[in-house]
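QA checklist item 7 of 12: single-chain prediction sanity check.
[x] sequence parsed
[x] length recorded as 202
[x] structure emitted
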Amino acid sequence: MKIDSKLFDRIRVKPDPEQVLRETLPTCEWAGCENAGTHPAPKGRGAEGQYHRFCIDHVRLYNKSYNYFAGMGDDAVAAYQKDSMTGHRPTWIMGVNARSWVRTHFGDEPSPGWAEEASIILRRARRTAPPEPPRRRLKTLELKSLDVLGLTEVATGIEIKSRYKELVKRHHPDANGGDRSNEDLLQEIIRAYNHLRSVGLC
């Protein structure tokens, strides 16, 4: 083997990975540690977006003892958890602007306890105004069928049935001494009722 060979001109020694990390990254912030600070660790409440730099061993120790809620009372922790459900953003009733709603109910300068008062008002409003059941939009044939029975579009299923029975008794040939002059009208009433029943209105 010739030491002056051109093959030995460019021999590179693989660098120590720990040495490279120490040179490129800041050192671990743990007291007395000389390793590279490879892992970020949050500084805590009030310093969001700021991080300590620790090595792997010390970041594990830090994470075991880390408590975001340290120094907060039980009420403050409960309030934080409740607010976290909405991403710590203000909420209000659908379709109502928060500022206009507060001004309407509490004036331009609301009292310190306005949020609690607002929740009481909202609970009362929900109790006193029961939701109106959704009304179904009727099609032309359904409206015509109701018209044959002499009813409006707001008629309930019970009203439709009782009106149908009343009209059948009035126009049936057996109730009129065998007179069949209203037979076409009776068939129209029966068809209208059957259609209303088939679409689920009675």
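[x] summary fact logged: Strands lie at 39-42, 51-54.
[ ] second reviewer sign-off
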